[in-house]
Amino acid sequence: MSRIVVHDLAKRYGDAVVLERVNLVIEPGEFCAVVGASGCGKSTFLRILLSQEHASSGVVVFDGRPLPREPQPERGIVFQRYSVFPHLTALQNLLLAADLAGSRLIGRLTGRARARAREEALALLDRVGLGAARDLYPASLSGGMQQRLAIAQALLGRPKLMLMDEPFGALDPGVRVEMHGLLAEIWKEHGMTVLMVTHDIAEAFKLGTRVLVFDKVRHDPQFPAAYGATITYDLRLDRAQRRTPPPEPIVAAGQALPSPALPTTA
Ligand SMILES: Nc1ncnc2c1ncn2[C@@H]1O[C@H](COP(=O)(O)OP(=O)(O)O)[C@@H](O)[C@H]1O
Ligand SMILES: [Mg+2]
Fold first, then answer.
1. C-beta separation of 175 from 116 below 8 A
2. Alpha-carbon torsion, ordered 255, 45, 59, 216, to 10 deg
3. Which domains, ranges and CATH numbers included, belong to the chain?
4. How far, in Å, is the centroid of ligand 2 from the Cα of 62?
């Protein structure tokens, strides 16, 4: 069970509070779209779930256990811009990722394990539509193709949790729509939990089964960093709603709704 439970999480950098009182339960297979103002701590929250960063206080439970201190392949991430090794082809980049994921204890993959990793990498490249581009170098890949490669790389670890930080933010609208289709299919096929940060409200409502809004509820005009953001709206979307994204801005949609994620003892 890859349930995620976040209990009273806070993150501070020095005196600056970035996140506070974050409470959240995500069931396996949910697709949470995360929105919020720039700088309010969305990426920080994702980095904490990846174990690239650690909470200052509070607890994250993943799969029934406290979150491991180190990143693992079962928690994959796709960033807005993919950092590939420019001197490796698409296939070689994937194989390197497999090497890094599979070799933590035993060194480079060898023999049968390597052959299996290659088969898996080729199948994944096909799956994300990069079969014909497997021998191309990153410089020859479009932005959309690079994000396809990034998704394939994250999938290689068979993640139970896929973290995505504005994965399509740098893409042209047409390409973005193609990527939505691909991601929706892959999410259904793999049944993984997805947490995707986006600044595109329509994208959040189109893809998510749930939309989480991060915002500050407390403000100190003398010292803006005194208080952090928390989850102010937690909107669960049923399938019918997902097919027809609401045209109104999210604040209007959220204000009429109760906010179960807000702490009750503010
Ligand atoms: N490593 C760090 N050290 C100090 N401050 C940081 C660090 N990472 C992020 N921050 C600060 O935390 C705040 C939230 O950043 P971030 O999570 O990137 O926001 P968002 O993704 O919502 O735009 C910002 O004010 C940022 O400057
Ligand atoms: Mg960010």
1. no
2. -40
3. 1-74+158-266 (3.40.50.300)
4. 22
Q: Are 127 and 151 in contact (CB under 8 A)?
A: no
Residue tagged 């021998």 (tokens): 135
Residue 148 has phi, psi (to 5 degrees) of: -60, -45
Q: Whose CA is nearest to atom 2 of ligand 1?
A: 13
For a ligand 1 pocket test, name from 11, 12, 43 the mutation site with the most ligand atoms within 8 angstroms of its C-beta. 43
Identify the pLDDT of residue 251. 47
H or E element at residue 76: strand 75-78
Q: Which helix (H) or strand (E) holds 57?
A: strand 57-62
Cα–Cα distance, 78 to 55 (Å, whole number): 21
Question: pTM above 0.85?
Answer: yes
Which residue numbers in the chain have pLDDT < 50? 105-106, 247-266
Identify residue 8 by its one-letter amino acid code. Answer: D
